[in-house]
């Protein structure tokens, strides 16, 4: 089998034409996907959400733009509590860290007052979600800022959160019993 020393003009032009056709097809497919998502799907979904949620949907839509993430969370998030031990120095520092970042719809509560006798930082949301440890941090981070929410979402990935909790426990952030506080100590 012999290889030509100089490729013919026909060979070069067919490669360039194929790349142009591929680029055009890709651009056309992308444009049709965007048109479908921004047009037909958004219209259909919007009418269904309006009929299902009414005024709540229009309030949400007024504050959250389509396709663009918010830097700060939507103020209408379901309320949640983050229980952090106030008598534990390292735990209280985490609680103060959250307070300094002005969380949206998140109250920082002393774990010592929780009726369940908590041993880890605990996140409880109004819809019944309850998580502890690194998962609690991950869910609470969604009440802060888009950057912290992204970190929280990564920590909630299967395997990642488990490994982060394992590391936290190994480095001293494991379960602990908060000291009980009496009425005079508050």
Mean pLDDT reading: 84
What's the Cα radius of gyration? 26 Å
Number of strands: 4
Helix content: 40-55%
Relative strand content: 5-15%
**Could you name the ranges where pLDDT drops below 50 across 5 or more consecutive residues?**
none
Q: Encode the helix/strand succession as letters.
A: HHEHEEEHHH
User: Taking strands numbered 1, 2, ... along the chain, how are they ordered across the largest sheet?
Assistant: 2-1-3-4
Number of helices: 6
What about the largest sheet? 4 strands, mixed
Q: State the end-to-end CA separation.
A: 90 Å
Helix- and strand-based class?
Answer: alpha+beta
**3D shape:** flat
How do the helices and strands line up, and which of them pair or pack?
Elements: H1 9-53, H2 55-63, E1 80-84, H3 89-100, E2 106-110, E3 122-125, E4 130-132, H4 134-141, H5 146-155, H6 160-170
Parallel strand pairs: 1-2
Antiparallel strand pairs: 1-3, 3-4
Commentary on this structure:
The chain has six helices and four strands, in the order ααβαβββααα. The chain has helices at residues 9-53, 55-63, 89-100, 134-141, 146-155, 160-170; strands at residues 80-84, 106-110, 122-125, 130-132. Strands 2-1-3-4 form a four-stranded mixed β-sheet, covered by helices on one side. The model has no long low-confidence stretch (mean pLDDT 84).
């Amino acid at each position: 089998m012999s290889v030509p020393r100089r490729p013919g003009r026909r060979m070069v032009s067919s490669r360039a034409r194929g790349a142009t056709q591929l680029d055009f097809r890709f651009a056309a497919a992308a444009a049709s996907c965007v048109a479908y998502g921004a047009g037909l799907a958004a219209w259909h979904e919007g009418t269904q959400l309006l009929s299902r949620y009414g005024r709540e949907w229009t309030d949400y839509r007024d504050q959250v733009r389509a396709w663009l993430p918010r830097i700060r969370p939507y103020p209408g998030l379901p309320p949640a509590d983050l229980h952090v031990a106030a008598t534990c120095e390292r735990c209280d520092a985490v609680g103060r860290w959250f307070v300094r970042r002005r969380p949206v719809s998140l109250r920082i509560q002393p774990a010592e007052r929780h009726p369940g006798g908590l041993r880890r930082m605990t996140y409880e949301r109004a819809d019944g979600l309850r998580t502890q440890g690194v998962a609690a941090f991950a869910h609470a981070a969604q009440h802060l800022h888009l950057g912290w929410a992204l970190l929280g979402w990564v920590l909630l990935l299967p395997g990642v959160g488990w490994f982060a909790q394992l590391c936290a426990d190994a480095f001293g952030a494991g379960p602990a019993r908060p000291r009980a506080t009496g009425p005079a100590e508050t």
